[in-house]
Amino acid sequence: MAKPKLALYWAASCGGCDVAVLDIEVKILDVAAFFDIVFWPCATDFKYKDVEAMPDKSITLCLFNGSIRNSENEKLAKLLRAKSVVLVAFGSCAQEGCIPALANLTTKEAIFKTVYLDTPSTHNPDKIFPQPVTKVKEGDLEIPVFWEKVKSLDQVVDVDYYIPGCPPQSTQVAAVIEAVIDILKNGKPLPPKGTILGAGDKTCCDECPRTRKEKKVKQFYRLHEILINPDECLLDQGIVCMGPATRSGCGALCVKANVPCRGCYGAPPNVHDQGLKMLSAISSVIDAQEPDEIDKIINTIADPTGTFYRFSMAHSTLKIADL
Ligand code: SF4
Ligand code: SF4
Predict the structure, then answer these.
(1) Is the distance from CB of 38 to CB of 54 less than 8 angstroms?
(2) Residue 242 alpha carbon, nearest atom of ligand 2
(3) Are 24 and 172 in contact, with CB atoms under 8 Å apart?
(4) Is the pLDDT of residue 215 over 90?
(5) Is 255 in contact with 243 (CB distance < 8 Å)?
(6) What is the pLDDT of residue 321?
(7) Kind and range of the H or E element at 111?
(8) Which of 231, 241, 258 to mutate to test the pocket of ligand 1 (most atoms within 8 A of CB)?
(9) Which is the closest atom of ligand 1 to the Cα of 252?
(10) Which atom of ligand 2 is nearest to the CA of 252?
(11) How many helices (H) and strands (E) does the chain have?
(12) 8-state DSSP, 106
């Protein structure tokens, strides 16, 4: 009997999601034994034309990581959607834009100016910017078109499931792959469309072993500015920890290592906007009544927008990119 077909793709991403797949260690052998891997640019030498030649819906499962930054990312998202029965937004970039979507705070023009003119290592006296098509005597040279803003996968195609994380924890990846194999082998029903796989249904705080007390913050600190109590809640100590605004599932990895949660598992259940949820959590811990004093305390938070929306800018209700 023909094996189910598996595709893995990276769009605008750092490659960490592909490493997370390899990090499942010997279980990768089960994946290779059960699936026919038909496309995985990071690890194999299939070409786009190989995918284009496949019949629609011939790929059983596609794990798509990376956000949609340019025309190539979008073309592949649409192609893989057409060819796949189940399309999974794998990792924070595909789920909600992640670090690449922080670029939505600025414009394409400003990004190009910084990269191709203002960077000290750039020598560009003729002020040449990359063009989608360049005519040379042999014909037209094409490169992908850089979009004005970064989108999540579900902002360009229909997505069946999401696996959060930057990257998803390998234990969670292994659990999801095992569950998928079980479903396909034993004819079990798929979870409802839109389900978040490989994560919990609480917040990171619920997995955190630190002791919480009444929160009365007079000043926020960056990590290097104070000596951290290893047992006490970081937010109680005035360190911005995204735990209250982040879905459980990683086992509170960062906070256990004395580093605040940055929010990579995305918003918890029933929270539409992770940044706004964090804003609400922050406002409840500030110990001040007077507007001036509140402003002073808030101003001690370094880069609030980038901190609260580090992973979820593409899904932000602020719609900063449209301003
Ligand atoms: S805010 Fe951070 S440190 Fe505090 S309980 Fe939540 S996850 Fe733990
Ligand atoms: S603690 Fe937060 S930032 Fe760290 S892995 Fe977990 S969800 Fe991601």
Answers:
(1) yes
(2) 2
(3) no
(4) no
(5) yes
(6) 47
(7) helix 108-113
(8) 241
(9) 7
(10) 1
(11) 12, 9
(12) S
- CB of residue 255 inside a 6 A radius of ligand 1: yes
Q: Residue 319 has what pLDDT?
A: 66
Locate the domains of the chain by residue range: 5-99+150-186, 106-148, 204-322
**CATH number for domain 5-99+150-186, candidates 3.40.640.10, 3.20.20.140, 3.30.70.120, 3.40.50.700:** 3.40.50.700
Please state the pTM of the whole predicted model: 0.93
Task: Give the binding-site residues of ligand 2, using a 6 Å CB cut-off.
Answer: 204, 246, 250, 252-255, 261-265
**pLDDT exceeds 60 at position 322:** no
Percent of the chain topping pLDDT 90: 93
Per-residue tokens: 148: 């004005």
Read off the pLDDT band of 320 (50, 70, 90).
Answer: low
Q: What percent of the chain has pLDDT over 70?
A: 98
Residue 101 corresponds to which tokens in the numbers above? 């979507």
